[in-house]
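Q&A log
Question type: sequence-to-structure
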Amino acid sequence: MFLGFNAAFFPMHNLGLMGMPRRIYTYQQGLGFDGLNMLVTMGAFVFGIGILLSVINLFMSLRTGIIAGKNPWNSDGLEWESDSPPKPYGSLHIPLVASRHPLWDFEEDEDPDFERTLDQGRLTPTTTWLDAEPEGIATIPEESIAPLFMSLALLFFFVAFAFQMVWTALGLLFLSFLIGCFWMWPRTRKEVV
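Response status: OK
Response body:
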């Protein structure tokens, strides 16, 4: 696909610089476009064959392929620690990061007493910025419709800004700020219930 794509589209730049007009289905012979147009056509066929092979591979993998589990490439990054599809809570244990390869360092029997289990809702530890020493728990906001309203307010802000409706744009920007404050405002457990 890479070779076909470049063989199909790169010579088109040269054809344009040589003066070949765009969006025509035929042109006069003898203008010097024949060889490059043949290369473009062959590149397009190679590119199409590559796409066809990719589609065939997709359907064969869906039908007979093995389901990949966690970390099929034995990567060292924490993003490969999650299941597919991911669980709502992310991971059962808070991963310990002690090196640049935390997934290779992590072992399941490292926490036999489940001391690092996230069992109190959607919580995440906060640390000091320099030493990464744990200093508290940050509560992640619960599911809310506020992000939808905030994105709609920002959409209308940009539309108003594009049409130079300055006061409307400022009002919508302030509204999106208020919605963001409402969404991120910390609540006690009573208020959430």
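Response note: The chain has a mean pLDDT of 81.
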